[in-house]
Write a structure and sequence with these properties.
Order of helices and strands: HHEHEHHEEEEHEHEHHHEEEHEHEHEHH
CATH class of the largest domain: Alpha Beta
Strand content: 15-25%
Radius of gyration: 25 Å
Length: 434
Amino acid sequence: MARTKLPPYLDERGYLYRLEKAREIAARTAGRDWRSTARADQLPPPGDWRIWLIMAGRGFGKSRAINEWAIEQARRYPKSRGALVAATAADARDVIVEGESGILNIAPPDFMPKYSPARRRLEFPNGSIATHFSADEPNRLRGPQFHWAICDELAAWRFEAAFDNLLLGVRLGIDPRIAIATTPRPVPLIRRLLDDPTCVITRGATYENADNLAPAFLDAILSRYAGTRLGRQEIEGEMVDDIAGTLWQYGWIERARLITAPELLRVVVAVDPAVTAHAGSDETGIVAVGVALIDGLPHGYILGDHSLKATPDEWARMAINAYHQHHADRVIAEVNNGGDLVAHTLRTVDANVPITQVRASRGKAARAEPIAALYEQGRVHHVGVFAALEDQMCRWTPTGSTSPDRVDALVWALHDLLIENTPTGKPLRLKLDW
């Protein structure tokens, strides 16, 4: 029986992808022509451009578009050199190279590259080579030269120098170009590209790729983000600027966002209870926050936003559930409007939960300002995305009339963990320039 010829996935260690994987790729890509199946907004624009920026919502097909463009460049210019750059080394490998829309999964059988993980290199049949890089290591992009490059999720890159070094290195051949895919965020690098006359921009929303997205994904993302500031950014692909006068900026939250928290020293659940319980009532803010020491400094970690509009019994049960869910040490409860009834309501659900009652002696802005300063310093991290909380943070202004219940709970928790009762045992005193 003749042996089936596998695509050239051989790396230095002699590892071959499974035969089933090779057959699956061959079956999926046989006879396909990306330009005949792609949407018009996934194809590179005509004309003389240096940079193509796809700024669109999640699920739009941005990564697929730039990965297909990279394959086209490698085929069009034999023996060319390309750069594949993502926010981290894992992103470069998992999204650009090996992802569902990665080059190894979409390249046609007659142009399947050989992947050498140790060298971070894809070698195409015509001699073209593409090397993947992490934007977290900008100096690796200082020196190498390229004919073309792609950048994934540029707005999430930590160091603008990574893009500057790449831009200077894409200088080979007669028509060096860069294709970029990103969700829009109001960071300086994206603003710079929007003003660059050599940059052409493709915009789009999640909905435009609905035919290729799982209904469960669409339902989840719409139910979570629709109608929020974050939804305008993550779904509509809109550049949402920070509102003048707010204490928080979305960029601060995004730069410090994490997927998982480190080992925490303490966890508290803060509650800012609503005074009434009817259709027009305010929400009860319920936010879980932890603290850890990083390089000797306390950092805060937002673990959960459980805020809701509810009766006293309902919000008390939610707060106690959050206390147990996050293995908290105590509940911090504001009692300005409820006095001892707030603690009593919580103890009717669980009499054993430790409760610290706090009373506001200063205005909301005075309490929030030092917390906003910690966000600006990168000392507070959201572990995941809390769309409603972040929307309220980045929209509330101290001169506004709205009551930011989620923000109040957040501020009480962070005050307790990072300012009043720090892990170092010394209260934090910030010199603020507001």
